[in-house]
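REQUEST FORM: STRUCTURE PREDICTION
Request ID: SP-0412
Submitted by: Lab K.M.
Chain count: 1
Length (residues): 227
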Amino acid sequence: MILENKNHLIFDLDGTLIDSVPDLTTALNCMAKRLNLDSFDEDTVRTWVGNGASILVKRALSRSKDISNSINEEYFNEALEIFFECYQANLCKKTKLFEGVLETLETLKKRGYKISIVTNKPSKFTTPIIEELDIKRYFDVVIGADDLPLKKPDPMPLIEAIKRVNSTLKESVMVGDSKNDILAAKSAEVTSVGVTYGYNYDTPISEYNPDIVIDDIRELLDILEAK
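STATUS: Completed
RESULT:
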C-alpha cells in the first residue's frame, strides 16, 4: 500500500521515536526510594507508559496498569512532584532513538515532508530530550502534553499541528505506538500508521485498527510516495 498525496508526518515520541523507559524507570525508582516504596522493574514500566506523567505515577502508586481509586490526592501530588524532579535529573541518560529513526527522519526531510511531534510528554522534558538526541532540527512543530487544553486521544493536538504546518487532514499521517495515537487519528480523520515495537500496554497495536501496521519505522519510506 502506497500513501499518496501526503505532505505531513505527525510522530508520537515515546515508544515511536525514542525508547525512554530506562530513564523513566530510574525516575520512578528514585521516587519510590524517597517514598519508602518497593522499586519497579523496567519490563513492568514498559506496560505503563503512554498516557503522560500523571497516569504513569498513578500506575506506579497502584503498582498496576489499572489505577486504584484509593490514592490520596495529596500523596499523589507529592509523588508526582518527586517524579518530575527525579526525571529532570535523568532525562537522557539511557534514552535512545529506536533503530532506523535517524535515517528515516533524514530521508523524509530530504523528500520535502513536513514533520511534527505530538506527544503526551510535558514540553519541559520533550524539548531537552530531542535536543540531546540531535533530532530537533527535523521537526517543524513540537506539541507536548501541556501545550494545549487537551491531549491524545483527543484529536486537538493533531489538528493544531496540521494547522501550524499549513497542511490538511487528508495530507497528514499520524505515526504512533499506542492506542491514544490511533484513536486521536481516527477522531481527526487522519491516516494512521501503528508501529509494533512500542509500548501500548502489552496490547497489539493492530487491535486498534490503524490504517497500516509496520514493524520498523524505516518501512515508512517504502509506503510513502517518493517526492
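NOTES: The domain at 8-19+96-223 is CATH 3.40.50.1000 (Rossmann fold).
Reviewed by: T.R.
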